[in-house]
Amino acid sequence: MLKNTFAALAIAALTVAASAPSHADEALDSVIKRGTVRIVTLGSLPPFTQLTPTGEMEGYEIDIGNRLAKELGVKAEFAVTDSAGRVASLQTKKADLTIADFTRTVQRSTVIAFSDPYLITYQQAMLMTDSPVKTSADLNDAKYRVGFNRGGVGEKTVEKWFPNAQKSRYAGNADALSALLAGQVDAIVEDAYYNAEIIQKYDGKVRQLPEKLTRLEIAIAMPAGNPDWLRVVNLWIEQFNASGENAELFKKWFGVEMLK
Amino acid sequence: MEFLAGQLRPIYPYLGELYSAAWTTLVLSLGAIVAALVLGTIVAFGRVSAHRLVRIAATFYVEFLRNIPLLVLLYFIYFLLPALGLRFSPFVSALIGMALHESAYMTEILRAGLSAVPVGQYEAAQSQGMTRFQLQRHIVLPQVFRTIYVPLGTQFTMVIIASSLASAISVDEVSGWMQTAGADTFRFFDVFLIAAFVYVVLCQLVNLLHTVVGRLLFRAKG
Known about the structure:
The complex is a heterodimer of chains A (260) and B (222).
Chain A: H1 2-19, H2 26-34, E1 36-41, E2 50-51, E3 57-58, H3 60-72, E4 75-80, H4 83-91, E5 97-98, H5 106-109, E6 112-128, E7 145-149, H6 154-161, E8 166-170, H7 173-181, E9 187-191, H8 192-201, E10 206-208, E11 214-223, H9 227-242, H10 245-254
Parallel strand pairs in A: 1-4, 1-5, 7-8, 7-9
Antiparallel strand pairs in A: 2-3, 6-9, 6-10, 6-11
Chain B: H1 2-8, H2 15-47, H3 52-66, H4 70-80, H5 90-115, H6 119-127, H7 132-162, H8 174-185, H9 188-217
Helix pairs in contact in B: 2-3, 2-5, 2-8, 3-5, 4-5, 5-7, 6-7, 7-9, 8-9
C-alpha cells in the first residue's frame, strides 16, 4: 500500500516536473536549447570587429559576445552584415543578438529591442588636415558637401547641424572615407572612435573637428517581444559595466579610457 | 484600402524624395543613352575602318569596357580619378560611367547594323558623286538605324536598370531612396515594392518614347 502510494506520488511529481514550462520567452528558450547564441556584427570596423589574417573575427565587440555567451553557458556564433541587415536579421529571426556599433534610437526601438548601452560616443565631423574649415558651424554652408552613411544616425545629425550643406550618402564607412580622401566631400560625419582610429591610421592626413554633434548610445539589439531575453542581457550588461570589465576591455582595444 | 493606407503611412514623408529620385534616374538614364549612342556610333565606324590602328583602338575600347563591371567603373571614375586631377560630381561621374559602359554594347549593335547595309549601296552612292559624309548621312545611317532600332530599345531599358548602381557613388536616385527609406522606416518590403514599381513605370515610359520616335522616324512610305 505504502509502496503503491510512493510510486503514485513519484510518478505524479515527475509528471509535474516534466510538464512545467520553463516560462522563458521564445528567444531565450531557443538560445538555451540550441546551445549557441547567433550574433551579428558589422564585420570590418576596427577595433570593434576586424578579420585576422587567418580569417577569424576579433575585436571589442567579439570579446563582448564571447563573454556574454560564456555567462549564458552557450557558444557564440558570429555572422557579418551591413547597416540595414542589423535590423533585418533580427526581424527575420536569423540572429539572436546584434553587437554591431548599433546606436539605439526611439525610432529603431519601435521594431527591435535595445539593451542598456555598453558604450557612449559622439558623432563628430572629420576632414582633411589641409581643409580651410575651422569649426563645425563653418560647414553649414551650401558650398560644402558632407558625406555620411545611408540610413544611419548621420542623416539626423547632418539635418540638424548642417542643413545648408550638400549631402552625399554612402553605403558604409569605407566608401565615405574614400570620398573624403578623394576630395569628393569636404567632411564626413562618423562616430568619434572611428575617427580616432582613422586619424591614427592615416597619420596626419585627416583631422577631427572637436564639436560633439550627436550623442550616441551603443547597445546590443535583439528581436522585439522577448522580455525575458531582454531582461537577461540587461542584467549581464549592468554587471559588465559595474564590475569595470567593460572599461578594461575597452582600454585593451581602443587604447584610451572610455567616455562616461 | 484603409489597411493599405495604414501600412504605408510611415513611408508618406519619403514620397517627396522618391519623386525627385525618379527624376534623377530618368535624366541620368536618358543622358547616358544619348551619350552612349554618339560614342557608340563613332567607335562602330572605327571598328570597320580601313586603318588598322583605328580598328585596333576601337576593339580595345569595346573589349575593355565590356569586361569591367559597371560598379567597378563607377568607383574608378568617382573615387580614383580625383587622384589624377579629374574630379567629377556624383551625377556627372555616373553619367560618364554609364555612357562609356553602354557605348561598348551600342557599338556592337551598331556594327551589326552597319554590316547589314548592302555593298551595292556604296557603289551606287559613289556613282552618284556623293561625298563620304553625304553617303553616311543620307544612305548608310538611316538604314543602320532602321535595322537596329528594336534591339536598341532593349538596351535603353538596360540603361535604366543599370542606373541603380549610381547610388553607390552617392547619386540620389531610386535605389538610393529605397535603401534610405527602408533603413529609416524598417518597412523594407513595402519600400522595395514601391521602388520596383517605379522602375517598371520608368522602363515602360522609355519604351513608349522609343516606339513613338520609331513611328515618327520610320514612317512607312506610301
